[in-house]
């Protein structure tokens, strides 16, 4: 009851604006809130280059909602998903988030697919005490200056991802070249590789080359990479840039002298390119359907997805949609209400397993400690079917040691 | 002018959401600033994102890095945009026609890349953050700026003030001088107008208005995304002004409202809203050359005549 | 800095320049002949790649796709000119520009509806797979060399058509002053229709040729539109020779920037464009009556 009341006071605070309309609205809402659905705002870039990833996020999030409702909801209260198109633009995402909070009176926000979009959403939710689960990579969002006690970062972050990949690929004595997209994602990934290289020791980073985001031609960057005589080339960029740069690097014979490594090996980008281009490329991932052989939670998630979408399998970014929504709904259920304080209390330091084995929500910075899968792209001849894209080389188990310490992030202990 | 005021004052009560009405208000002002140059002076700029963005970053950086109050930050934003407009204007008015468009585009892109690189100041691609204003204090009064209705009317007051100044300017002899330049540059010159000076003043005033829109937008969103400066933002101003009616006072607001409403409604209904926006835009160009408002106003005038 | 590396960058720059020339020639043709700034250029380029994939899956031959795609998209361009652009002649250059802006918006989304928003794989044609070891210049893919040769061929053909045929004469006269043609009893509308078709066909050809080098996706034309504009504006709008020289210049500038200030590689194009326009507002080879 206490939880419901504090949730109501927040609503009242938000509604205070519509003065003339406010009073009757609050009255009717108070009587009704007990069984009004829990509303989850879900901004995601349905239009634009990551439309496919976004659609899969929505599909997976809907599974989480359906499972929650089927298992009785929150004391009978059902959940519903309010999907909004953020168009991959921080400004648009901020507007949609304001709308979700002010007009749709959501109880929490889950979503985003880029570093800048999640920071924009975070800025809005932070000022309004709104719960937010971010499901795309960023190192910045958990740093003290952007941290919000209401925000939880369920996705991997660049430091963990690049670190895990580096630990499995880098060997002392290696020469490493890094090609990175010149923006937060690329720089954070590159920094992750650099830190890991220092920790491993004996690794020579011979070249670090920044390319503009969205470059259409990479041929002018390749002569330097070739001249660096590196054994490993780390390509730190995302989406189309990844597909484009790997393809051109392969065309220009880089694979003949070096191993190509990416921090995040994207399921959809691999599908959009030919297997020959990606063959042998190693990279990290948050989720790949084949881990169902190790983790029962992954199997039941895959099974639910197969049942809902005629035998198809979820993608990596799709799985974030599921785990993000699942995380917050489960916490609300445990808290017995939707009040931000109660949910934060449940999530701080929580141990949970949504779909990829055990995870811990670190209390000090709200980063999910979790495993990083190390994948290698398969040769066309070894693929058993269209979804059989990668070999799981290793599973880098989640450990707090793999994260930057909270003191490093600027949090006071 | 009174019509604009009345319509915009009622907007939050009819639009689907408060955030959308604020967008209509601010993008309407942005398009109005652009229209001053395009509709009234005949110069098609593809670089107005630079001034919108300069206003946003000017105000945002003042708030986030220097702890300037919200009121001062708005003036700083407008000032930065004005200075940038003076600079870009001085260079670009030397060329004409499509080359003018290209010079403004190129210079604005340089501003974009500069802001992208100046991460310490602008936050780079992650965008500028840390400028949330939750309470507006002005002397003894303090307002809750997180409240959407309060926020709307505060921004509304600024926009109205700017529009009032603009309408005064357009009705003054300077307004006539601008239109003379648009209609026929050589004739304007022959009549003794200093064409370059008129163009430059129009350019700077246009930049100031767009800068105000940008500053207010930074306050509204509490972030400044890097794509504020991208050329697609310039394209947005062009589309809105043309859709509503270039060269009319109310047109840009109508254009902004139609564009944003279509986008809002269609994007809830289908992920392929761009298809419809594109088609509607083409139809508008083909069949409403003077824009929606320009065409309606034309009919009205004909019927009265 | 080793000399070898600088040489390799210069070579890569010239090669990239040829790709830039190829991508901008369609834009230049339409501007030079019709005075229209075609904002849908990037969309036609992208459609070229998708139509190419379609023909390729139907026939299984890259070469048939290469022959058919420009014709199919060119015919589509004829319809666009006849139905959408022609009503706007005489209304000033802003209107066709805005119309093509809207058209590009719609076409990109249409492709997303038909082919999905993910990219589509496009393999290098088998005959041109692999590459050559060019010694100090490094390994260079055969397909890129083919694209460069093909670009030179296209430019030669265009030059011959414009400078040495009766059609070229008409086109050149029309670009100077359409009234001359009307006085001579030539149907200007038909010349413009054809020119628009050729321009869109060339854009599509560039898109198809780019498909095996870059990935194919609905947004692939966006960057190209910008690059093509920069090249065309630097060269002087409507000048083929200017476009060719500007393409090379942009390629070399981008390549050398990639060596010394890699993150500024895209910006360097705009810096070059700004510089050129400040010194010569009509571009290197542009006619100055359009600029002043």
Describe what this molecule looks like in 3D.
The complex is a heterotrimer of chains A (413), B (305) and C (292). Chain A is of the alpha/beta class and 413 residues long. Chain A has 14 helices and 15 strands. In chain A, the strands form three sheets. In chain A, strands 7-6-8-9-10-14-15 form a seven-stranded mixed β-sheet, sandwiched between helices. In chain A, helix 1 (2-15) runs antiparallel to helix 2 (19-32), helix 3 (51-70) packs parallel to helix 13 and helix 13 (316-335) crosses helix 14 (340-347). Chain B has one domain (19-235). Chain B has 14 helices and two strands. The longest helix of chain B is centred in the C-terminal third of the chain and has 27 residues, at 195-221. Chain C has 292 residues and is mostly helical. Chain C has a single domain, classed as Orthogonal Bundle (ABC transporter involved in vitamin B12 uptake, BtuC), CATH 1.10.3470. Chain C is built from eleven helices and two strands, in the order ααααββααααααα. A two-stranded antiparallel ribbon of chain C has the order 1-2. Chains in contact: A-B, A-C, B-C.
What topology does this entry show?
The complex is a heterotrimer of chains A (413), B (305) and C (292).
Chain A: H1 2-15, H2 19-32, E1 38-44, H3 51-70, E2 79-85, H4 90-102, E3 108-111, H5 115-127, E4 131-134, E5 151-153, H6 158-169, E6 175-181, H7 184-200, E7 204-211, H8 222-227, E8 232-236, H9 240-251, E9 259-264, H10 267-272, H11 275-278, E10 282-285, H12 296-308, H13 316-335, H14 340-347, E11 351-352, E12 359-361, E13 368-369, E14 372-377, E15 390-396
Parallel strand pairs in A: 1-2, 1-3, 3-4, 4-5, 6-7, 6-8, 8-9, 9-10
Antiparallel strand pairs in A: 10-14, 11-12, 12-13, 14-15
Helix pairs in contact in A: 1-2, 3-13, 4-5, 6-7, 13-14
Chain B: H1 2-14, H2 18-38, H3 49-66, H4 70-92, H5 97-117, H6 119-122, E1 135-138, E2 141-144, H7 148-171, H8 173-183, H9 185-190, H10 195-221, H11 231-244, H12 251-269, H13 273-287, H14 291-304
Antiparallel strand pairs in B: 1-2
Chain C: H1 3-34, H2 41-59, H3 62-85, H4 94-115, E1 131-133, E2 139-141, H5 142-164, H6 166-176, H7 178-183, H8 188-210, H9 220-235, H10 240-260, H11 265-279
Antiparallel strand pairs in C: 1-2
